[in-house]
Protein: FAD-dependent oxidoreductase
Amino acid sequence: MVDVTVVGAGVIGAACAEALSAAGLRVLVVDRADPACGTTAAGEGNVLLSDKPPGPELELARVSRALWPELLAHLGASAEWEPKGGIVVATTDAGAAALAATASGQRESGVDAVALTPDQVADMEPLLTKHITAAMHYPEDAQLQPVLATVALLTAVRQRGGEVRSGEAAVGVVTKGGAVAGVRTERETVPCRIVVNACGPWSAAFARAAGAPIDVLPRRGMILVTAPLPQSVRHKVYDADYVGAVASGDADLQTSTVVESTQAGTVLIGSSRQRVGFDDTIRVDVVTELARKAVALFPFLADVPVMRAYGGFRPYSPDHLPVIGEDPRLPGLWHATGHEGAGIGLAPATGRLLADLVLSRPPSVDPRPFRVDRPAVIAA
Structure:
């Protein structure tokens, strides 16, 4: 008998499954494709505090930042965990003022944000443009390899007696007495008392099939990958405009500069946000804009070949907060979605919070801002 079926084997579904199985529940994970091959595989592996203003998401991020190294150590996995810190720079006077204001609020929330002098910036990132008006160092920002992290989480679920099924889409739920009694897949009906909707950008479709629609939309993002280089970018470096792009709900194309190296030596260049449904076309105008802005921040990149470009769909909620909790319209249906581009960083805390709520334990963070029945999320 399965206690919980988690629909979606990306990093959020994997984190929920790991936390629930660690609590002693028997868990089944189903995914229409392979684990971590959707939104998770299209991410940069960001574990960030720097891009979040004070509020519920930042609190969730702080818990997650503390949990990731602890969890990976417990699982015996490295997942290329790299606590390298981040540097946010402004290139205008207005950007400098906004960066200072954001950092001030973050410090009040417990985030380590350190203003840098021009000499300090040059010492930390020698190849960064000198045309900056302000810079802030966030020592707690980190990075990991999201596919490896997801695999580690799902491996733990299997080791505890759980099951992970690939290539098996969930198409709805079974109810009895007004509550969840099972999940229907393309192959069979699986009895269970809890179903977790962790379908990322496809969460709205599954919620609709379950009879409890929610408003979670796909938001397209693209990333460029350079050829391998000697060490060139030492931290995650991004323009202060990135924070505004994250917080915006505009459907039109928005780009902001994010540059970082990986352990393989490649440099990742982002980021873009655009609401185009599930259109996965590689758009030349987006690629060109990302490259232009990256060269403005790191001039040496003008002579570096781009090896490939890739994109993915991120689960966007209209109020920019994840959806974590039980659906009041259908007891036994739980949601863990809407993290947009922050899912990698927020995954451990999301899994922990969902498990806390399922098991009626004191929650690790206040769950009320993430509740399903808020106006921005409940679809008509």
